[in-house]
Amino acid sequence: MQAINDSKFHRITLKGLKQSSLVLIALTCSTLSYAQGTDVFGPVRKERPEPSSSDQTLAFEVRFGPYLPNLPNQANLTPSFGDQIGRSHRVMIGFEADWQALRIPEILSFGPGFGMGYTKLTGDGTVTDARFTNSPYTASLKIWAQWVEAVLRVDILQQKFSIPFVFYGKLGAARATWWSHNHPYYNNQVDVSDSGSAQGLAWALGAMFDLGFLEPERAKHMDAISGVNHMYLFWEWYQLKLDDFGSGVNQVGDSTWALGWAADM
Question: How far apart are CA 262 and CA 231, in angstroms?
């Protein structure tokens, strides 16, 4: 009886060893195959694929900077308006959108751009009328400028060598509409208002710093999710020469600089 039980025990043990060996062999083959991109059930799927960059066709910027129109002493806005309004700089706030219509990969892009900006100047002055010499009044001037330009961007350093700087130039035309308003203190019933417009050439030179350089992996992930290729801080020197293309006086134009934030999409 004891011999029969020993025989059954040996058969069960051998069967268990064979099954365990088969399981170990299967697991080993599966591990080796997984390392090569496949397993016993077929190809292994990558858990987190590398994000792909989206197309880059549009640039958008928000900008601000000092602005003081080149008002002559005897401008036709009001008598001695340039002196009466004050000579300290005010801030112009604006935006611009550029279409990168022509693009040479990893080198440059070229296309049209459109932008606009707004500023308001206020100050106290004195009436120069002979009847009311040195009588005080308040004055204000509002300027709304728009421009259309051809934009050339050179981004070979950023695209090809991972140096986070982009340089650009702009050339085009601009137009500004202005509104002036004077209110003398000596007569609350009198308001002197005027308005007009001027146009001329516009140009700019600038440099941009790619913020994605600080966190490249996050920048790639954001591009895959939102379609924003890059974000920048930029500095620009520009001029709005609003002299009616050389036939008039540059009354509301300026040569100045701007700072801002920009994005490629």
Answer: 6
Q: List CB contacts of 221: < 8 A, sequence separation 6 or more.
A: 51
Give the Cα separation of 28 and 31 in Å (integer): 5
Please compute Rg for the chain using Cα positions. Answer: 35
User: What does pTM read for this prediction?
Assistant: 0.73
Q: What is the pLDDT of residues 87-135, one digit of tens each?
A: 667 899 999 999 999 999 889 999 999 999 999 988 776 655 555 556 6
Domain annotation for the chain: domains and CATH numbers: 2-43 (no CATH), 58-264 (2.40.160.20)
In this predicted model, what pLDDT tens digit does every residue of 46-78 receive, in sequence order?
555 555 667 788 999 999 999 988 775 544 444
Contact between 94 and 119 under an 8 Å Cβ cutoff? The reply is no
What are the residues whose beta carbons fall under 8 Å from the beta carbon of 96, sequence distance 6 or more? 60, 61, 63, 113, 114, 115, 116
